[in-house]
Amino acid sequence: MFTGIVEELGEVTAVETLDDACRFRLRGPVVTQGAKHGDSIAVNGVCLTVVDHEGDEFTADVMAETLNRSSLGALAVGSRVNLERPTAVGDRLGGHIVQGHVDGTGEILDRTPSEHWEIVKISLPAELSRYVVEKGSITVDGISLTVVDAGRDHFTVSLIPTTLALTTLGIKKPGDPVNLEVDVIAKYVERMLGDRVAGEGVTR
Hints:
With 204 residues, the protein is α+β, with helices and mostly antiparallel strands. The protein is built from three helices and twelve strands. A hairpin with a 3-residue loop joins strand 1 (8-17) and strand 2 (21-27). 31% of the residues are buried. The model has no long low-confidence stretch (mean pLDDT 91).
């Protein structure tokens, strides 16, 4: 489990294209401290498994399903990525519950800067809109954010200077893709209520 609090801005140092997957080598001095084979690290919000680790770099294999359902397929050598290690038991939950399982991708639509923060508008797939509510939580490229405004096909978030300086959202521009993970609690509530309604329908 992750919390959506990015630990560092890493970099893709190598990309190896395989038949039905990709192998990425990524640099991250913070997240590689104590890393070992089999550990999990979130890369732009996607939970990946450490295959190999040497110095401040690690490699991770990404299968076709993940490449198709996330924006990781657009990464190239030199791409900056948000990195986060799993939350340790007993640590503070700084953001919200994040699984590292991307629900879909959006696109940066617009950026509106102001003196102390920036409003970013992001497109929202139709199948995810019911999970996104004003003042609710959403994960964008692995960053836990609060929704400012929620529309049918878009939402906005307000970014403070720290987020702009320490994550990929500080450098992404209109047209760039981002990974989206909605609040898992909303999905569980929907499933439970749906099963309950269906059960009551059968009883009647």
